[in-house]
Amino acid sequence: MAGKFETLLDDLKDTAVDFSKLTVTTATGDIEAALSGGEFNLEDVNMEELFKKAATGQVGGKVIIAAIDSYQLDGDAFIFRTNSSSVSATQQQNLESAHINAVKAGKELRQGVMDIFKDGVKALVK
């Protein structure tokens, strides 16, 4: 039983680093990139890499960061909203709604995973 508890604690320690910060970024714009290869599968597209290339001019298009929310475990937060004239008021409202839902989903997912770990620790302690 001690081995299981130590394994759970090690897993919790590794996971805690990932859960110490929640960052949600919402972007809008156009990316012009040719995807080559065999059958197209969206799961194979590295969206983060594609956004980086668009932001640095390595591929065509324009990406605007519309919103960023970053929350630290200690309560610190960084909140950003664009004031770019390229984003209309209606677009901004729609992006904000999607962004808020993504932040909520991220928080709920993290809480669910933490509850699983908490339940696992309780079961081992009994």
Structure commentary:
Strands 1-2-3 form a three-stranded antiparallel beta sheet. The chain is 51% helix and 24% strand. α1 runs antiparallel to α3 (89-125). The protein is of the alpha+beta class. The N and C termini lie close together (11 Å). It has three helices and three strands. The model has no long low-confidence stretch (mean pLDDT 82). The chain has one domain (2-125). The protein has helices spanning 2-19, 47-55, 89-125; strands at residues 21-32, 60-72, 77-81.
Q: What is the general shape?
A: extended
**Could you name the ranges where pLDDT drops below 50 across 5 or more consecutive residues?**
none
Query: What is the averaged pLDDT score?
Result: 82
- SSE string, helices as H and strands as E: HEHEEH
**How many strands, what sense, and barrel or not for the largest sheet?**
3 strands, antiparallel
Cα distance spanning the termini: 11 Å
Q: How much helical structure, as a percent, in the residues? A: 40-55%
Rg, rounded, reads 20 Å
Number of spatially distinct domains: 1
